[in-house]
Amino acid sequence: MSTPSPDSSRPAIAWIGLGIMGSPMSENLIKAGYDVTGFTLEKEKLDRLAAAGGTAAPSIAEAVRDADVIITMVPASPQVEAIAYGPDGILENARSGALLIDMSSITPQTSVDLAEAARDKGVRVLDAPVSGGEAGAVEAVLSIMVGGEQADFDTAKPIFEALGRTIVLCGPHGSGQTVKAANQLIVAVNIQACAEAVVFLEKSGVDLAAALDVLNGGLAGSTVLTRKKDNFLNRDFRPGFRIDLHHKDMGIVTDAARNVGAALPVGAVVAQLVASLRAQGDGGLDHSALLRAVERLSGAQV
Length: 302
Description:
Helix content: 40-55%
Shape: globular
Strand order of the largest sheet: 3-2-1-4-5-6
Structural class: alpha/beta
Number of helices: 14
Strand content: 5-15%
Radius of gyration: 20 Å
Number of strands: 9
Largest sheet: 6 strands, parallel
Order of helices and strands: EHEHEHEHHEHEEHEHEHHHHHH
């Protein structure tokens, strides 16, 4: 299948970070007719971008120099700071007037600080973390929660529409990250509840596939159960979203909640269960592997 030619009337995009989420997302922009220049540390990911019709850049500076819009998708706050700041970073090399959209999941304060630093360089910023995992990225059905100025959101909206389905401006800088933290709290607690139900059902001798089908048709149903049902049934924990990353996100939400005086009693317990799974060597597995933690607690040799 041939790749569509870039539409010169659309903004030129630099994409930094081509991991599990970044690669399919950048490819969806190419399919939508955007000219995408990418940079990441892994050569094979750059080769994949080029094969999809994008342009591989040798450095962040080269990637962002002529970009109208710069999109970043990296694991955590330290990586965002590493690519944004310093002589070789985005802010020193982006042109004045460029729009920087950080789609990583980081602390709200990091987003606020980045927006402030970028303002001094004439660069506009949106924090725009996503929910939906690898499947949502591939299918371009992500939820995108955005923090920043309305005018910048309006500029970015067509780009977001090539990546996701639910796109909402949640408030000023940092608001997208706050909503993403709440999202990760809900997802982790939901997966934990599903995992406990799976172990309970199996130990009770019930047909698990049938049970999960009927549960998903009622009030216990959820996007988590729909997306992760096969993971549970097949014990398939190949990463769509790694435990390592969810551990990072649970740290973000528990810390942010403490700062604003919100109690997260169940979230705190699940954060510890995620941490214990990581400590047992399962950090590289999908977050549905919370099932393994419940199995261990229930006496299984996992």
